[in-house]
């Protein structure tokens, strides 16, 4: 079996800032990456921001990865490459842990009759086989903590490109927490890798999403999971992205759906398993 690419899409949350999402697919593996927004100016890894740097390096690592015997082996190889790249690119010590580049990712691999999935962070996937849709990645409830945090800081101005000091302090404090399940520049992050194995067959379809696109089901409840896959078949990714941005424009003050950005980078990868 192998992956066939049906469609991919990646939108910047704000065209004035870099898109820190990435996505790609090979013959038997695919991935989406969501670089976590920088909380300080560039400098740690040179003139480029840490989020864009990490997303680019992770994209290169997944693209160039040698065939692996498992999703764990694939992800461990990527983490080792990132650690080596960081050691070579770092210009100084980080100001604190919040400055270390981090990202969320979801990767899938076709194994022996099974779809192997591995993730860290809040990227989401959907696997459809016939009428059955299986969620891959963290449960929907995992994102509620961030929405609650945003709501608690609403008086300081949500959705602004220039974050206020209280919001920036809160985000930095969150990043400083030890043991976070995210992709980073320390090889031991893969000890926290989450995995799932699903029976698969030719004709199955997959939708891999960064959280900015998965907001359609997780934050805005515009669809349930089977409904999103049905809409994907009927409308394609472009129409779904238009719906996503329309919801966000209608809630530009981030009042109905509390969030730190008016619009996040949004990336989706639509794959089909071929025989």
TrEMBL record:
Domain called PPM-type phosphatase: residue spans: 17-225
SUPFAM superfamilies: PP2C-like (SSF81606)
Top-level taxon: Bacteria
Transmembrane segments: none
InterPro entries noted in UniProt: PPM-type-like_dom_sf, PPM-type_phosphatase-like_dom
Protein name as annotated: PPM-type phosphatase domain-containing protein
Native organism: Sphingomonas hengshuiensis
Organism taxonomic ancestry: Bacteria, Pseudomonadati, Pseudomonadota, Alphaproteobacteria, Sphingomonadales
């Amino acid at each position: 079996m192998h992956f066939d690419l049906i469609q991919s899409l990646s939108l910047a949350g704000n065209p004035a800032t870099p898109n820190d999402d990435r996505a790609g697919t090979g013959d038997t593996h695919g991935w989406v990456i969501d670089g976590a927004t920088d909380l300080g100016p560039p400098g740690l890894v040179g003139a480029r921001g840490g989020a864009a740097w990490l997303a680019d390096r992770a994209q290169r690592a997944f693209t160039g990865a040698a065939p692996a015997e498992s999703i764990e082996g694939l992800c461990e190889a990527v983490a080792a490459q990132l650690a080596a790249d960081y050691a070579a690119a770092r210009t100084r010590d980080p100001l604190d842990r919040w400055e270390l580049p981090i990202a969320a990712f979801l990767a899938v691999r076709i194994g022996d009759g099974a779809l192997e999935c591995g993730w860290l962070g809040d990227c989401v996937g959907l696997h459809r086989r016939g009428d059955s849709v299986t969620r891959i990645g963290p449960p929907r409830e995992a994102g509620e903590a961030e929405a609650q945090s945003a709501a608690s800081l609403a008086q300081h101005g949500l959705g602004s490109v220039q974050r206020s000091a209280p919001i920036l302090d809160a985000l930095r404090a969150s990043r400083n927490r030890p043991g976070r399940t995210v992709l980073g520049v320390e090889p031991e992050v893969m000890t926290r890798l989450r995995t799932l194995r699903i029976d698969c067959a030719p004709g199955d379809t997959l939708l891999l999403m960064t959280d900015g696109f998965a907001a359609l089901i997780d934050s805005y409840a515009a669809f349930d999971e089977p409904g999103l896959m049905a809409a994907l078949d009927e409308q394609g990714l472009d129409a779904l992205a238009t719906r996503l941005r329309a919801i966000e424009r209608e809630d530009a003050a981030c009042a109905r759906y509390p969030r730190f950005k008016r619009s996040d980078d949004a990336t989706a990868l639509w794959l089909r398993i071929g025989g």
